[in-house]
Design brief:
- By secondary structure, the protein is α/β, with parallel strands linked by helices.
- It has one domain (38-143, 186-362): TIM Barrel, CATH 3.20.20.150.
- Helices cover 40% and strands 18% of the residues.
- It is built from twelve helices and 18 strands.
- The protein has an eight-stranded parallel sheet with strand order 3-2-1-18-15-14-11-4.
- The longest helix has 22 residues, at 190-211.
Amino acid sequence: MNEQNTFSRRDLGRVALAGAALAQLAPNARATVHPFTPGIKLSLQVSQDPTPEELQFVQQMGVGYVNIPGDMTTATYENFVRLKKNVEAAGLKVWNIGNTSVHNMEEVTLNLPGRDAKIAEYQQFLRNLGRAGIYYTTYAHMGNGIWSGPRETTRGGASSRAFNLNEGGVGNWAGKTFQQPLSHGRVFTEEEIWENYTYFIKRAAPVAEEAGVRIGIHPDDPPVPILAGVPRCIFGNFKGYVRAMEIANSPNVGICLCCGTWLEGGTLTGATVLQMIDHFGKQGKIWKIHFRNVSAPLPHFVETFQDNGYFDMYQIMKALRQVKFDGCVIGDHFPATVGGKYVPVAYSVGYMRGLLERANAEVKD
């Protein structure tokens, strides 16, 4: 276990005081934070240009919100308006629209050539979202992608993503592959990663505030101290998130808490997923939940069905209800099952709905 990231009761007291002090700071006068309607929302991801069949499936599942992926070719104001109209015509709402080109930028995280151009692209993306009335987006700050090993099987032989830290694996993002031992030819320092984050967020947050868009930052997947020479020192542990929120000092910068990623980390994260929800949820800083489970914490995990991992996912739903979370909950990284792509998604929605109904019945305002 990384002793530097161990989460103790003394740490809890310090960060609670820091969080309370931060909450008292006057928000930027330019900031616009559109309030969420009360209650936990369930959501599903659809394709870049969702078909009538996809939207009908969302309706049939009783889910009210969709998440739409995208890239630089689709990230225009006109396209955002078109997508929003199509979704709303089906009686649904858009929670967020993604853009892989600026969701996870090695140029930004590692200060590579083209950094300022990528930041400018991200700023325009935020402006287009806000102008179109899309008020949330997810961002990740990994310098060499999401790392995985060969796929393995989980319950019933379902094929699923896996990773074994002792065997390596490869990083992937937007069609690019990152390899051990050094993905970018050298070892980066933690100080560099922090400086690069600060440089980025100080330029992104003011635009998000002006556009009225919330930025939820996703954990590093997997959340290990370093991979292929790139430290994962900010969004792979609790203390990193606390410091990152303080640096941003913006009502428009918060968290997309991927429970699966956090469960991968185990003790490496310095705080349990329930402690993350309690601390940041009470601050109103968690805006989207990736609701998935894994077989075990690192060094070796296999993504699995929500009811088949090592963590009781009801405890997560209950914790969200206790902090009055009013953001979006979505399943992702579904194991591949017989019967086609809709089967594991439908199973996930049914399971989440059951947990949510139980939490609403047991937790009173």
